[in-house]
Here is the input.
Amino acid sequence: MAAPDETSATARRLLEAPLPAERLAPDASPVSPPRGWQVYTRPLLGLFIAYHLLAVIGHLLPGRGLAEQVGQIVGRGLGGDRYLRLSSNIQTWKMFAPNPHRRNIHMRVLVEDASGQRWNLRHDVRTRRRFPYLFYDRFGKLNRRLTQDPAMLPVYAAWVCRDWELQRMRGLLDREPAERVVFVNVSNQIPPPARAIETNGYHPRQLRLRHRIVGEHACAELPHGQVPNVLRVRYGLPRKTARGGPGDRFIDVPLETWWTRAHGGVRRRRPRGVTPPAVARPRAHGTTTVSGPGEEDGSL
Amino acid sequence: MIAVARPTAVVATVASVDLTVATALLVALLVLVGLFFCVRRDLWARLWFARCDPRPLGLFRVGFGVVVLWTLIDLLPFARFLFSDEGLWLTKHARMRYGGALAHLWDPQHGFEHAYDLLPALWRSFSLLHFRSDPPFVFAILILAILSAALMTLGVRTRVTTVVTWVLVDTLYRHNLVFYSGADTAMRVFLFLGMLSRWGEAYSLDAWRRYRRAVVAGEPPPPRRLIPSWTTHLMMLQLVIIYCTSGLLKTGASWRDGTALYYAASLEHFIRFPEQIIVVTWLQRLWILPIGARVTLLWELLFPLAILGSALRVYEDERARGVWVGDAQARPVRIASYVILSLALVCGAGLAYLIGYYYIQKVAWWHFNRPSTGALCSLTVLGLPPLAIAVYRWLRRAQPERTRRVLLGGVLGRRLWLGCGLLFHLGIEILLNVGIFVQVMIAPYLVWLSSDDLERVWWWLGTRPDPELSWRQRLSLARLRRRAPRPPCQIYVGDAEHDLRRAALLRPWDLCGRLVFVRERSPTPGALSLRGPGDPARARAGARAGIVLARLFPAFWPLAPLTWVPLLRWLVGWFVQRVVYPPIAAAADEPMTAEP
Here is the structure.
């Protein structure tokens, strides 16, 4: 057993003395000279830091104008873009830049079923959002993306078609099969500050809406617009046969792998009577209808 | 200069000869900066290879880890839609669009053609979800990511769990890009830097286990180790890059005429309540939003001053202590570095001429023709740095104390720049729902704190307003400055060394310095026994003691509200005392008091 004075010393050391921490002496430089492997690792680390900063700055330089070529030299010539992609450092910081939007723009998603009836899926923020808006809704971002990137519309439409059909086949949806997906751009102008001040504010749901059909996509013609066999098997549904008629075939996306290349490439078979996906353009562009103030979805 | 002369949004067509000149100047500038640091390797080493206190980075790990967890949990309801083959992308389509080389190098039936094909597949954009993305697999990945992020936040095997978190988070984010927001990008960028850092050295279970191992083994407590500063500095630079880039891109008319915040706070995608539009309109009418828009823009553009201030404070501090690395440099080396800097300045002036010529139509309120604007910009770049250095040196000589207090601590101080940032982000959080953007941007502020700042924060949290303050003073800022210690919590410690060591395990948790150890026989031998703050009546032991400690130790503050919930409070108390006061074996020659 320890002697009392020894115990007291231990108690002082363990319970009273400040917790030990490595500190720099007041007269010591914070940079210690390299020791051991640091002789080799420090220059390498320095190069890495310089390269990282160069890649980030080169990536953020404007793609047009005076810095155009330097951006290319750093991004492509020095492999900056590849490094940033590999390390998940691709970045843009356009936060409300160059201007915040002056319009509220939403993409309304409608499904036209086999009977010709159109159903609003309530995917757009205007019909989906419940106030107060406390928990972040990723659908909102995706809906904004649809308004900005037309290439996303067929992908989104294909999902809508697949999901509709799958729910229907599983008995979760009591509707006719989906024929096409219609995208309607719904927007309104935010009143300029002077006008808002005159009226002492406004209610955003009472602003005049502008509807514009920006795309129609037929489910039978969309790549991946049908339920694939992998999902059918998962839910115990009948598989699609290899040879099906129009509307009864899964249209795949053409993807060449090393194996398909070695065996004659991707066979881009299409069922008879089906329009090629490239031709399956939106049926009506820019059809504009203006509705009254505060009008909600309606059946466009 | 940029703040006064706003670049125009429209990019003018640049003549090819000027493009070549601009490219040459920019490349020369980069080369000269590189050359400068080759000549002044001492400064480069000071910038990146100094050792620093691990606590700010440790605290950042905790705050940032919570943000990562929040993001991942927030993704749970959308995981099926965003990542699984029952959602937006079938596996093959996602692989084709976002899988890079993997789409061609890997065949679902036949795998890779060669084993080495895995490397180029990894190189570009690799996600496990491009191999399979059925919902169980997606949820397994997401749950694993949540678990590893939680372990990273707690600091359990921090280096490993950070790397695993980065890999799993990236697997999710590389599946497709359609749902990204700025917050996601910021999170990934800082997570990458965190992976390179030693952010588990402080405020982590790793650090506590190291301490416990030594204390239990009868060794002296291990010191908290210093860590390399390069990742901390990269994080600070990254924050500067984010704000400054964002400011430079805000070239639109809304930011100049002061309507930008009005429009941003009116967008239906982000507003929290429709009724807030009335408040926003009033704020615009009272000139709060127009002023706020201009202040935001200036703050973002000038945020690099914050890092300049930090660098200057370090320089002044180390010069005063006689340890500044630059002082040891030979005169010829210093002269060579000044020559290189002058050449870099000339290149910068040439670039500024072209920028002024092509992009700036108006300086403050005056319109100039293009060559005059270019010349003005060029002269500013050429003259401003030497002038600023001369004025700073004169101020430092004439009034050193005031310069330090007003310039380094005020105008270039962290309080101003980070304080403005807090206000700015608080405004965003109140008016707009932009996900975790606010949280992910505020978390890196923690790496800007110094050791003194942190100690002040813990001291402040461990004290209370001085009871002698008058009621009027209590309502003023004096309550933040004049503080008195809170009543301590007395821990009973027996005489055996084993008891002392066990009690010492509590100390790393006591960040606010609330514990006092009393060498008195414990009323409940072997179990944790204490007398709570302001509770002289009776001693508490076991779960009751745990409840007291949950309210005292910052690490358990997230659980503290539960200590007021009936029944649950006992569970929390038991858990806390079990974690902070684990049983340890007594030495063979020492009589054991009791085991709990």
